[in-house]
């Protein structure tokens, strides 16, 4: 596709896709792709279902996207306060990125988030990803898991602990029935480390969760 411009600077360019910050124009394609029971079933409960326009707007606000259209029913609400809410003193280390084809087509989402609040996991991030069904089976998730993981473990990425140290570990937790995602992680070089039996609750059901990890020495071993 010619004439397509990325709305924001691409952050990570891979062979077949780009990981970049979300933009307001992602709202419609994101909601259309994410509103799918075959995606929701393998995401954590925080992933909305149905994934409607309001859910999409809420997510893009979390991602600090500017120039969003108003929420439906916004006219019925009282005017927003003019003073900005107090900014958090500690910036979030979480990173939320849209996955786009090289022609700019939105295909899904990925990101890294801090593991726990007590600081003992501060050298780790948890990776997450989803791909719109229309784009499954093209190797995109494998490319994203490999590319984002390796990038995040590189000191040049700027993904550092609060005390300025490079990350040492990227972790993924996969429901034991999610064979596609397990395959993605294994192909991307993550090591299957074990099962947290009944580790999470999903739709009121306890789920075994398989833990995969990628650490810096895995990268050295695969070079
Ligand atoms: C899991 C997911 C991200 C994979 O995306 P994708 O871009 O299709 O992944 P890839 O093409 O890189 O690889 C998927 C592989 O799993 C295989 N696969 C798909 N369904 C499978 C199943 N039920 N059992 C075994 N393998 C399966 C595919 O055939 C493919 O392997 P192949 O290339 O050898 O044919 C996508 O299905 C998705 O978004 N699922 C819902 C959300 C989700 O599970 N997110 C991850 C949470 S941990």
Condensed summary:
This is N-acetyltransferase domain-containing protein. 23% of the residues lie in helices and 27% in strands.
Describe, in plain words, how this protein is organized in 3D:
The protein has a domain at 12-68 and 90-164: Gcn5-related N-acetyltransferase (GNAT) (Aminopeptidase, 3-Layer(aba) Sandwich), CATH 3.40.630. 23% of the residues lie in helices and 27% in strands. The protein is built from 6 helices and 8 strands. It has helices at residues 27-34, 37-40, 53-62, 140-153, 179-187, 216-221; strands spanning 12-13, 17-21, 95-101, 106-114, 124-131, 169-175, 191-202, 205-215. The chain has an 8-stranded mixed β-sheet with strand order 1-2-3-4-5-6-8-7, sandwiched between helices. β5 (124-131), α4 and β6 (169-175) form a beta-alpha-beta unit. The longest helix is centred in the middle third of the chain and has 14 residues, at 140-153. Bound molecules: coenzyme A. The site of coenzyme A has 21 residues, from β5, α4, β6 and α5. Coenzyme A (COA) binds next to β5, α4, β6 and α5.
């Amino acid at each position: 596709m010619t004439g397509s411009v990325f709305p924001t600077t691409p952050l990570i360019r891979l062979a077949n896709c780009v990981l970049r910050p979300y933009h307001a124009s992602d709202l419609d394609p994101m909601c259309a792709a994410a509103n799918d029971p075959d995606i929701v079933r393998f995401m954590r409960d925080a992933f909305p279902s149905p994934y409607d326009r309001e859910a999409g707007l809420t997510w893009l606000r979390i991602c600090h996207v500017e120039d969003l259209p108003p929420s439906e029913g916004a006219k019925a609400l009282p005017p927003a306060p003019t003073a900005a809410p107090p900014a958090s003193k500690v910036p979030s280390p979480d990173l939320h990125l849209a996955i786009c084809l090289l022609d700019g087509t939105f295909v899904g989402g990925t990101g890294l988030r801090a593991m726990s609040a007590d600081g003992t996991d501060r050298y780790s991030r948890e990776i997450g990803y989803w791909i719109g069904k229309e784009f499954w089976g093209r190797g995109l998730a494998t490319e994203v898991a490999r590319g984002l993981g390796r990038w995040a473990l590189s000191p040049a990425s700027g993904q550092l602990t609060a005390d300025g140290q490079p990350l040492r570990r990227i972790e993924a937790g996969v429901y034991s029935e999610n064979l596609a995602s397990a395959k993605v992680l294994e192909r991307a070089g993550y090591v299957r480390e074990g099962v947290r039996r009944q580790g999470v609750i999903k739709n009121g059901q306890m789920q075994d969760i398989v833990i995969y990890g990628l650490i810096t020495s895995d990268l050295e071993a695969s070079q």
